[in-house]
Specification:
CATH superfamily of the largest domain in chain A: PurM-like, N-terminal domain
Shape of chain A: globular
CATH architecture of chain B: 2-Layer Sandwich
Strand content of chain B: 25-35%
Low-confidence stretches of chain B: none
CATH topology of the largest domain in chain A: 60s Ribosomal Protein L30, Chain: A
Radius of gyration of chain A: 26 Å
Distance between the termini of chain A: 52 Å
Number of strands of chain B: 3
CATH architecture of the largest domain in chain A: 2-Layer Sandwich
Strand content of chain A: 15-25%
Helix content of chain B: 25-40%
Largest interface: A-C, 33 and 32 residues
Distance between the termini of chain B: 7 Å
Number of strands of chain A: 27
CATH class of chain B: Alpha Beta
Mean pLDDT of chain A: 94
Shape of chain B: elongated
CATH class of the largest domain in chain A: Alpha Beta
Number of domains of chain A: 3
Structural class of chain A: alpha+beta
Strand order of the largest sheet of chain B: 2-1-3
Largest sheet of chain B: 3 strands, antiparallel
Oligomer: heterotrimer
Structural class of chain B: alpha+beta
């Protein structure tokens, strides 16, 4: 074997700029070190200060979100994921994260490693993952590249998640040209842990050994983190090799071994390795503990020969963790990992001081103050220039009355049911294991949110991801409010009380003032709704630079909502019609305004108008009263009105329940198009036994929520006045057939 | 040291859906002269043996015991020095 | 007397806890896990080889797991006439181990499929199915990418001759149709037994159909049928 020693490049401003750092940032690094950084140090700073790791352009805005709540056991951003007390001595760890850029380049591995990464965040905290969700955005399905991406992403999620053995309980998929070339792949994991048995990502106790466990280290994804912070271009398409490859089998072993190792009590701190691998995990743990760490890179198990300190520190090889053990008890931990056929090697030590020091071949390769590297410490934080985008006035003033509206309501409804954004996603979710772990009460599909029961408890967890990017594009503040409000309404519709959110903020380039303005406004809207609905933010992830040559994607702050069902046997709720003869009632706000609707998008091919209004005070009362009604046991079906409006909601309830309905919309105000297709917020359709109509109506009147009975369940048709009359089978064919037909051309 | 190159394919009598799908896709791409596609696995092993025959025997044992399932798969072994 | 059940854990098993929960908490059986490195089965009435992705299923489903030390013990256990139930990946392992005839191919449409399906009890002359009527339809989840059961014509005749087909995919009314055979299995086979009648392999997951809250409890009559046979043994 010939020994090749690569000459390290000379570190100067030019090289720093090549690493994506600015001149000011390079000066900051020199100040922190009191000298010119080594090549390895420059590499570490460049990834640690990348957008992906440092949140440098977003953290000041994120801090304005409400992050306090009685049930929160750790503050937002303090640990790998949010942790919420769910009672009965249990806590729920949950988080959503993006893997957009890797998925754009290599959809299968990009999506797979996204799933792996988010589950690792959860079990690093000592929680066992119990449910997954994913929130996906693609371009127009007519485009073969889009179908290729969808197919690859779904296979990637399916192969990784199914093997890892966590049920997929919910998610959403949207298609719009705005996401062409820059798909969004956001994955969410939900885990359960006993209160008091959680692990922390901290390095404490001078003299305690540091272990690396799991997979060996190779050259995977070096500078993946920096890569995620650039616009997608033809150049980054050529960077394909930097995408990591996932190994769900090893991750499954890592999960079982880590939870077992935590039970020994010999673990002081644990952190998973995602972006910027060893560099990030070791410096974050060290900074958090307020001490120092020495690490010998020669001890790290390698998959490839001749790797430099630069490469070892920045490698993003998957399925690895860093552990700080109680001194003298490291063997207990090693034994557990060996039982599961995994590496576990002592590679460092917690030391006095405040620096992370990395050795290789008997030399110090990097020696930096840990705090200077990390978010919340010395990493830069910026407020960017913000400017209201010019298109907003135009779209918000668009008058939908100027359009030619067809009165063929049957055709319109069938076209909406056939629209990819509304049509059944069964083709996708049947590729995911939805029933493993035997907890799934509401699987994806015929439910407003995913619902799992918690074994050894009466409770259940309702979870939902949601964001209508079109609404945020047309009115960032209202769009942000609606994303939170709607996901909360969705978990309420399954019988749960919304308690907290995680978020994945997908936006364009923050250096563009109009993108930054939109970002600030959307977060402002989210904050409004979180405060009103009492659902604090527990953490999440920011993904900037979601752009393609045509411009930025729709601003898409995806909300992951967590709700608690007090008694899952009694309170669980679904949207399908249940019994012939049941009364159908509408509750909520007036159905008015067609702005931003799927109707405008599908029928008129327009993305315009103002986003529907939302009165957050009204929304809060609606949710409270609806949850109480569900818990009273008086309701048989509940469905939120969202994309496609009232007509689509009724059609879905009929399709899900395989029962028709005959309804009259005479009591609704407004034009027929608005009544049937408006996506006005704060509305739901419910059904109940006919003899309970009075009690149900009185209940909502008590809360000042408008309510009226407007139809009856039964038959094999959906009939709306004399304007719509369609067989369920005809609706079902369009609703179920659209995606398979598009994918199997 | 010998290098064993092993090709594993589904037995001829068994429908190869991956091959079929690839064949269909190639037809759609206009490659009409591609008449049949079989998709299999390719495995390389470095084998420490005294002779080519011994290396072959070892490789074949590896195939019958683990690498191939003869209920549904055929395998071919090539040995190189 | 409570029945004693063992559930094997391979690296990559992920339905081991589901089988454990079904046996321990729904069927109230005395249930333990068996580790893949164990060399003995011990005093158990039934061994379950659960679903999952043993060794990642990286070479072929079940191909590596069958070399685990525990599988030698399983071979002995079967020889002694004790019952073994393989579910999903467990079925694949039993095929690879030669305890059941045939092999598993990728689903016909090359995609993983997870949904509830109907299966029909094809014969009730095995210890597993004796408590159920022939033709009974069970609604149970499937969740697999490689469940397309293959056996050659000769093997199929043999299976039929010895009444080894335990379950076939069917529609809600018990009709075996092409549409119901979603993964393309030979003769719509969902589960088979060995000639001696003490090994059953099936792709569907009866252990995931044990509670009405989760959508189906059709797994209960199936396990009750097994437990009754164990009672008699």
């Amino acid at each position: 074997m010939s020994q090749t020693t690569l000459q390290e490049p000379e570190v100067n401003l030019e090289l720093a700029i090549d690493h994506g750092l600015t001149e000011d940032e390079y000066e900051m690094i020199k100040d922190y070190l009191g000298r010119t950084p080594t090549f390895t140090e420059l590499g570490v700073y460049s990834v640690m200060w990348s957008e992906h790791c440092s949140y440098k352009n977003s953290i000041l805005e994120i801090k304005k979100l409400p992050r306090e709540g009685d049930q929160l056991l750790v503050g937002a951003g303090e640990e790998n994921a949010g942790l919420v007390d769910i009672g009965d001595g249990l806590a729920c760890a949950f988080k959503i994260e993006s893997h957009n850029h890797p998925s754009a380049i290599e959809p299968y591995e990009g999506a797979a490693t996204g799933v792996g990464g988010i589950h690792r965040d959860i079990f690093t905290m000592g929680a066992r993952p119990v449910a997954s969700l994913n929130s996906l955005r693609f371009g127009d399905m007519e485009n073969p590249r889009v179908r290729y991406l969808l197919d690859g992403v779904v296979r990637g999620i399916s192969d990784y998640g199914n093997s890892f053995g966590i049920p997929m309980v919910g998610g959403e998929i949207y298609f719009d040209e705005a996401y062409e070339g820059n798909p969004l792949v956001n994955a969410m994991s939900v885990g359960i842990v006993k209160v008091g048995e959680t692990a922390s990502a901290i390095a404490e106790g001078i003299g305690n050994p540091v272990l690396i466990v799991g997979s060996s280290t190779g050259r995977d994804g070096i500078h993946g983190a920096t890569f995620a912070s650039e616009d997608i271009s033809e150049e980054s398409e050529a960077k394909r090799p930097s995408v990591q490859v996932g190994d769900p089998f090893t991750e499954k072993l890592l999960l079982e071994a880590s939870l077992e190792a935590l039970k020994t009590g010999a673990i002081v701190g644990m952190q998973d390795m995602g972006a910027a691998g060893i560099a990030c995990s070791s410096s974050e743990m060290t900074a958090k503990g307020g001490l120092g760490m020495n690490m010998d890179l020669d001890k790290i198990p390698m998959r490839e020969e001749g790797m430099t300190s630069y490469e070892i520190l920045l490698s993003e090889s998957q399925e690895r963790m860093l552990i700080v053990a109680e001194k003298g008890r490291e063997q207990e931990i090693i034994d557990v990992y060996e039982k599961w056929d995994l590496n576990a090697v002592v590679c460092g030590e917690v030391v006095e001081g405040d620096r992370v020091t990395y050795w290789k071949d008997g030399e110090v390769k990097a020696d930096m103050p840990a705090d200077s590297l990390v978010l919340g410490g010395g990493a830069p934080q910026y407020v960017r220039e913000a400017k209201k985008p010019e298109y907003l006035d135009t779209v918000q003033n668009f008058d939908t009355d100027t359009l030619q509206h067809s009165d063929d309501f049957k055709t319109i409804l069938l076209d909406l049911l056939n629209a990819p954004n509304i049509a059944s996603k069964r083709w996708v979710h049947e590729q995911y294991d939805t029933t493993v772990r035997t907890n799934t009460v509401n699987a994806p599909g015929a439910s407003d949110s995913g619902l799992i029961r918690i074994k050894d408890s009466k409770k259940g967890l309702a979870v939902k991801t949601d964001c209508n990017g079109r609404y945020v594009y047309l009115n960032p503040r209202k769009g942000g409010q609606i994303a939170v409000a709607e996901s909360a309404r969705n978990v309420v519709c399954s019988g749960a009380k919304p308690v907290a959110i995680t978020n994945c903020l997908n936006f364009g380039n923050p250096y563009k003032p109009d993108v930054y303005w939109t970002f600030k406004e959307a977060l402002g809207g989210m904050g409004d709704a979180c405060r009103k609905l009492n659902t604090p933010v527990t953490g999440g992830n920011v993904s900037f630079y979601n752009e393609n040559p045509k411009g930025a994607i729709f601003p898409t702050p995806v909300i992951g909502m967590l709700g608690i069902v007090e008694d899952v046997e009694k309170h669980r709720m679904t949207p399908g019609f249940k019994n012939d003869g049941d009364a159908v009632l509408y509750i909520g706000a007036e159905r008015k305004g067609l702005g931003g609707s799927e109707y405008l998008n599908t029928i008129h091919h327009l993305t315009t108008g103002d986003t529907p209004d939302i009165d957050l005070d009204f929304e809060a009362i609606l949710q409270e009263s609806l949850l109480e009604a569900i818990k009273s046991g008086n309701l048989n079906a509940v469905h939120d009105i969202s994309d496609g409006g009232l007509a689509t909601t009724l059609a879905e309830m009929a399709i899900f329940g395989a029962k028709g309905a005959d309804v009259s919309i005479d009591d609704f105000a407004g034009s027929l198009h608005e009544i049937l297709f408006s996506e006005a917020q704060s509305g739901a359709v419910i059904s109940c036994d006919p003899e309970k109509v009075e009690a149900v109506s009185d209940h909502f009147k008590k809360f000042n929520i408008p309510v009226h009975e407007f139809g009856t369940v039964g038959g094999s048709e959906l009939t709306i006045n004399d304007v719509v009359s369609i067989q369920i089978s005809e609706m079902s064919n369009r609703y179920e057939g659209a995606i398979p037909k598009a994918m199997e051309v | 040291m010998y290098k064993a190159k092993v090709n594993i394919t589904l037995r001829k009598s068994i429908l190869d859906p991956k091959g079929k799908a690839a064949h269909h896709a190639l037809q759609n791409l206009g490659l009409k002269n591609v008449k049949d596609v079989r998709i299999g696995k390719f495995i390389e092993m470095n084998i420490d043996a005294d002779s080519q025959n011994e290396a072959r025997e070892l490789a074949e044992t590896a195939c019958t015991q683990l690498l191939a399932n003869e209920v549904m798969e055929d395998f071919q072994v090539e040995i190189e020095e | 007397m409570s029945k004693k059940i063992g559930v094997i854990v391979f690296p990559g098993s992920n339905c081991d806890h589901d089988a454990y929960h079904a046996m321990k908490h729904v069927m109230n059986a005395d249930t333990t896990f068996l580790w893949h490195k164990d060399k003995e089965i011990g005093d158990l009435d039934l061994v379950i080889v659960p679903g999952g992705f043993s060794y990642g299923d990286y070479l072929r489903s079940g191909a590596i797991a069958r070399f685990s030390p525990i599988m030698e013990a399983v071979q002995d256990y079967v020889k002694k006439g004790f019952p073994v139930l393989g579910i999903c990946n467990g079925f694949q392992i039993l095929l690879e181990a030669g305890l059941l005839p045939g092999a598993m191919l990728h689903n016909e449409k090359l995609r993983f499929v997870c949904k509830n399906v109907n299966i029909r009890v094809e014969n009730n002359r095995s210890l597993f199915t004796s408590g159920m009527k022939e033709g009974t339809v069970l609604n149970v989840p499937v969740s697999h990418g490689e469940g397309n059961y293959f056996i050659d014509d000769e093997g199929l005749s043999d299976l039929k001759e010895h009444e080894q087909i335990a379950f076939r995919y069917c529609d809600a009314n018990g009709n075996v149709t092409q549409e119901a055979n979603f993964n393309g299995s030979v003769d719509s086979i969902a589960g088979i037994i060995n000639k001696q009648g003490n090994v059953l392999g099936m792709m569907p997951h009866p252990e995931r159909a044990m509670e009405p809250l989760l959508g189906s409890s059709d797994g209960i009559p199936f396990f009750e049928s097994i437990f009754n046979s164990l009672q008699l043994a």
